[in-house]
């Protein structure tokens, strides 16, 4: 049963944050009347939200979904257009300097999901367009509904995607030809292709079953040692961007301290006693 997250740090205009059982937060894109288009407030609130989640010792897993009829229609061009199309400076270098800073700020909106040590599950229904693909590509796990579709829309509005899709999608799908096709043409990728290509790991018949599956997965993750889970996420992200040997060296350095946790003994004891990890009661991290 969900409940509104009581802490004032989770009060936003464009996001609704609720608690979904023990140690699980639900972050809902909450502009259903605008098809969850990403306006100026959204780009800053996502950063504030996930930085707060990163520091929230009660949270161990997160589900992101979209309120209303679709996950997101992407960037709110009407709201954001003035940031880029109406520069305040006359000098070309200064215009470029300021635009670069704005792009870097917008990139952080989704990079903050990747930096968050808590696993983040994207639950996608209906359309996931433009910035939505940037968002879900920064998540750790992606589930979707049967009617879901994905579209790298940016070329259709005259620009190259610049907040994460072109950097993360090739590493998720692993098929460079397919990624290039999607990015060059802005064609829709339907749920069956998204699953077969590796963009999503499960497809559900409708939104209620999708959310149920996502929350069950989040609850399962949250039942395990937060030292183990969060250490696993940090090292997965690090190893993706480094050589095998660099990843191994980082892992050795990480676990030379993390292996000293009591969580190892508690987990091993639960296995030997055939006791569910949910009954162990790991300390906050």
Description:
With 285 residues, this protein is α/β, with parallel strands linked by helices. The chain contains eleven helices and ten strands.
Concise overview:
The chain is an alpha/beta fold. It has eleven helices and ten strands.
Can you tag this structure with a few keywords?
globular, seven-stranded mixed beta sheet, 11 helices, alpha/beta, 285 residues, 10 strands, 15% strand
Low-confidence stretches: none
Termini Cα gap: 24 Å
Nearest-angstrom radius of gyration? 20 Å
Q: Into which percent range does the helicity of residues fall?
A: 40-55%
Summing up helix and strand content along with how strands pair, one would put the structural category as: alpha/beta
* Biggest pleated sheet: 7 strands, mixed
User: What is the overall pLDDT average?
Assistant: 94
- Our count of helices gives 11
Principal-axes shape call: globular
Oligomer: single chain
Task: Enumerate the strands of the largest sheet in spatial order, edge to edge or round the barrel.
Answer: 1-2-3-4-5-7-10
Beta-strand content estimate: 15-25%
- How many DSSP-defined strands? 10
Q: What is the H/E order?
A: EEEHEHHEEHEEHHEHEHHHH
